Amino acid sequence: MDNTKKVLNFYGIFVVISWALMFIIHNEIYTTEKIIQGMTFICIAATIFFILVHLYHKSKTGQIIVLLSLGFLFILSCVGMFVVA
Fold first, then answer.
1. Could you list the residue range(s) of the whole structural domain that residue 52 is in?
2. Neighbours of 12 (CB within 10 A)
3. Count of C-beta atoms within a 10 Å radius of residue 47
4. d(CA 81, CA 59)
5. Is 26 helix (H, G, I), strand (E, B) or coil?
6. How many domains does the chain have?
7. pTM for this one?
8. Of 42, 40, 45, residue with least CA distance to 73
9. What string of pLDDT tens digits covers the 85 residues of the chain?
């Protein structure tokens, strides 16, 4: 299980770095406000991701918390999709 945790942490770091590189490479497309919003979003999302990865590998209770959190995020995403559309 320790190997899975390392892979997931590497993935989270990769996502944050790739978003930052995207904003650096395409800085003429995005306004400063959009860059700040995008980086704020990915930092918050990555923080939640790292917390969930840690909780999942910490204990059986952590696995239940992660499952409930992912279920909540799924329902929130479905509701948000219909509200925004």
1. 2-84
2. 19
3. 12
4. 33
5. coil
6. 1
7. 0.78
8. 45
9. 578 889 999 999 999 999 999 999 998 998 999 989 989 999 999 999 999 999 999 999 999 999 999 999 889 888 888 887 5
